[in-house]
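Progress report, Aim 2. The chain analyzed during this reporting quarter is listed below.
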Amino acid sequence: MTWVKRFIVFLVVGFALFYLIAYPEAAASAVRAIFHSLAVVLRSILIFFQSLPLPNQPTLSVTETTSAGVSLIPAAATFSSKWITDPVPGIGRIAGDRASSQASTICRGVAL
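Predicted structure tokens for the chain:
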């Protein structure tokens, strides 16, 4: 089994040497791309570990991390009965306990 591994390594090294000799500019570009990718990965790992809190360092709450305690989370949309609603033409009313229009427009002139 070891002769198979040695043969595969021989083929890979032989191909790499052939590629370096036959296409030096493309080989240099490939090596540059590999090292650039490794640099990006290592930089991301470094940033991740730097962002972790130290063991004795207290963590900040959301309120402490925002400016003057202002929440950055937007409020959920709410509906108000103050809006003028018009029934939508062509859609009838539901009979029985649920007697209301199936849909209504928020502003006049939307369903013209």
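DSSP finds three helices and two strands in the chain. The mean pLDDT is 73. These observations will guide the mutagenesis work planned for the next reporting period.
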